Structure to design on (263 residues):
């Protein structure tokens, strides 16, 4: 890539959680070039919603339009990557493998992710998480998150994984207080990260937690340091959903790379 640093995780209006008039490829490109960083468009690809919602940007095989649009921009800009943040559902492993077999060679960077395992209850949305807590004990939700994360890693479908402890975006001492029987320790996150290392899965150092109640990256600085010391391969992402946040986070992104280079 052209520049020293790469933001591997930005979202455009191709992501379901961004309005149609939201940020476009070209807007990110202008800011990235000005600040001399490479950028990977890692828009959400969610099989469950593709099957249910015609409003989903990738509905009806629109992924080919998405990739063609990025490929056209690559003819001019040599610091951009095509990518997808692909949601993992244990019951859809067959479809996910077929998707990867058909498309992985055409995409620069794909990362597996978990936002939900019970459809319509993403744990990354505070209101939905609270609804889920009313139905299921908090301990069970946290335990299931880590169990499904282990299944994602064990599946070997993905070479990269996003924000391995995003379950704590809202469940933390600053917001939805963990109940006494909940294991929210660094040791638990370290165990998951070590499982990534064992299975040769690259771990994201996701900076977005700084804008949520957790007020730290996913995973924490201490955890990512330990995992890198133990041989973990790390990529850095801002998880930007707006141009303003993307630009604001660039100094943090560069600092993260410098910090990781010293470990």
């Amino acid at each position: 890539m052209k520049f020293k640093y790469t933001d591997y995780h930005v979202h455009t209006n191709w992501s379901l959680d961004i309005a149609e008039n939201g940020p476009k490829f070209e807007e990110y490109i202008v800011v990235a070039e000005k600040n001399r960083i490479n950028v990977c468009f890692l828009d959400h690809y969610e099989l469950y919603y593709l099957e249910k919602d015609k409003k989903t940007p990738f509905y009806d095989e629109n992924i080919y339009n998405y990739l063609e649009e990025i490929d056209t921009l690559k003819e001019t800009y040599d610091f951009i990557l095509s990518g997808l943040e692909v949601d993992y559902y244990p019951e859809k492993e067959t479809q996910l493998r077929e998707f990867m077999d058909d498309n992985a060679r055409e995409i620069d960077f794909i990362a597996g992710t978990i936002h939900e395992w019970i459809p319509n209850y993403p744990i990354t949305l505070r209101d939905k998480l609270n609804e889920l807590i009313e139905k299921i004990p908090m301990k069970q939700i946290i335990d299931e998150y880590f169990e499904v994360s282990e299944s994602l890693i064990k599946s070997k479908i993905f070479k990269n994984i996003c924000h391995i402890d995003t379950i704590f975006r809202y469940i933390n001492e600053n917001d939805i207080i963990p109940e006494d029987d909940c294991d929210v320790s660094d040791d638990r996150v370290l165990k998951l990260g070590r499982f990534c290392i064992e299975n040769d899965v690259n771990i994201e150092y996701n900076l977005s937690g700084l804008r949520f109640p957790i007020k730290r990256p996913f995973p924490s600085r201490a955890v990512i340091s330990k995992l890198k010391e133990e041989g973990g391969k790390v990529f850095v992402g801002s998880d930007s959903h707006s141009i303003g946040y993307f630009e604001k986070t660039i100094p943090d992104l560069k600092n993260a790379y410098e910090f990781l280079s010293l470990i």
User: Anything to note?
Assistant: The two ends are 23 Å apart (CA to CA). DSSP finds nine helices and seven strands in the chain.
